[in-house]
Design brief:
Oligomer: single chain
Distance between the termini: 36 Å
Order of helices and strands: HH
Mean pLDDT: 78
Strand content: under 5%
Number of strands: 0
Length: 51
Amino acid sequence: MGDSAKVHSELYHHWISHKHHQRAFDLMANNSDRPQVSHVLGYGKTVKSSD
């Protein structure tokens, strides 16, 4: 595209609805092949998934 971040945000995002953003986020978040959060050594707290 070659546009600055400001132009991209102001122009292109005007045409993208919340529904489109949410769908893209859901697809990325639910992809089993995505990188997983690193574990901090010495920290044993388990975080439950929202699945």
